[in-house]
Specification:
CATH class: Alpha Beta
Structural class: alpha+beta
Number of domains: 1
Helix content: 25-40%
Number of strands: 4
Radius of gyration: 14 Å
Strand content: 15-25%
CATH architecture: 2-Layer Sandwich
Low-confidence stretches: none
Mean pLDDT: 93
Shape: globular
CATH topology: Nucleotidyltransferase, domain 5
Length: 115
C-alpha cells in the first residue's frame, strides 16, 4: 500500500510529465532520490533513449546529502556538454525544489546547462 507521501508525489509527477517532454533539441533532465543515493538522467523522450546519466551511489555506503547531490549535478553537466547538450528541461520528478534537488539543479547550471 502506498503511503500518503508516495501517492502525493505520484500525483504531482503525473502533472509535471503531462506538461514537459524531452526532445532532441532540449532533452529532459530528470532527478531521482533514494534513501542511499541521488540519480540524474538526461533523456530524449522522442527516441526513448538516455543520453547521459550520473549517480552518487557507492556500493555499501550511504552517499545521499547535499554535497553528493552537488557532485552529481556537476557530473551530469560535464557528461551533457561532452555529448553536445547545452539546454535541457528540468524534471524534478514530483519532489520539492529544496535541499538535494535544488543543490543538484544549481550545480548543473554552474556546470553549463541551461534550464
Amino acid at each position: 500500500m502506498a503511503t500518503l507521501k508516495d501517492s502525493r508525489r505520484s500525483r504531482i509527477k503525473k502533472s509535471i510529465r503531462g506538461k514537459i517532454a524531452g526532445t532532441a533539441e532540449r532533452p529532459r533532465l530528470t532527478v531521482y532520490r533514494s534513501n542511499s543515493a541521488v540519480y540524474a538522467q538526461i533523456i530524449d523522450d522522442a527516441q526513448g533513449k538516455t543520453l547521459a546519466a550520473a549517480t552518487s551511489y557507492v556500493k555499501g555506503k550511504v552517499n545521499n546529502n547535499i554535497e553528493a547531490a552537488s557532485k552529481v549535478g556537476k557530473a551530469i553537466a560535464e557528461k551533457a556538454t561532452a555529448a553536445g547538450i547545452s539546454k535541457v528541461v528540468f524534471d524534478r520528478n514530483g519532489y520539492l525544489y529544496h535541499g538535494r534537488i535544488k543543490s543538484l539543479a544549481e550545480s548543473a547550471r554552474e556546470g553549463g546547462l541551461q534550464f
